[in-house]
Specification:
single chain, alpha/beta, Rossmann fold, six-stranded parallel β-sheet, 7 helices
């Protein structure tokens, strides 16, 4: 199953229902985010390759009452921006949604700089961020729709791997 595309498609109704949702992408998801860009052009922002700064921006958005969703390649989120996730989001108990793409070494053809195996799960657990993982053993018991709903509607920060 292509969870990346399916996740982005499942975001559309949430964006329609609540104008507080904003998608922040890190130079990824092109093609898959077209529906969101077409329907919500002012609520999708490509922040490029500045994951650390984008986490700070997302934290500020959450403090202002918005619900930011960061959609980033897994290793750039969990390796490059982990200090900001911990300090700016987790320690302040903010509702920022993190979506990591390329999990389970999907981008291995780009080299080790674009992979992290399952280290992202361990890292997020260390900083206390709930992890939603459709690839894990227990995911057969939880339909993807329910997993997405639990992730996106949580009042706290949360992390989904797709």
């Amino acid at each position: 199953m292509n969870y990346k595309r399916e996740l982005l498609e499942k975001l559309v109704p949430y964006f329609r229902e609540d104008k507080r949702y904003h998608l922040l992408i890190g130079d990824s998801g092109f093609g898959a985010i077209d529906n969101l860009i077409d329907e919500f052009p002012n609520r999708v922002t490509n922040f490029g390759v500045m994951e650390q700064g984008a986490v700070g921006i997302a934290a500020g958005m959450a403090m202002a009452g918005l619900i930011p969703i960061m959609y980033v390649i897994v290793n750039f989120l969990c390796f490059r921006a982990i200090e900001q996730i911990r300090n700016d989001v987790m320690l302040q108990n903010l509702s920022v949604k993190f979506a990591a793409v390329g999990c389970n070494d999907y981008f291995s053809f780009l080299g080790p700089s674009h992979t992290c195996g399952t280290d992202d799960i361990k890292i997020m657990n260390i900083i206390g961020c709930p992890v939603f993982d459709p690839y894990c053993d227990y995911s057969d018991d939880i339909p993807f729709d329910d997993m997405v709903r639990n992730w996106i509607t949580s009042t706290k920060a949360s992390y989904i791997r797709v």
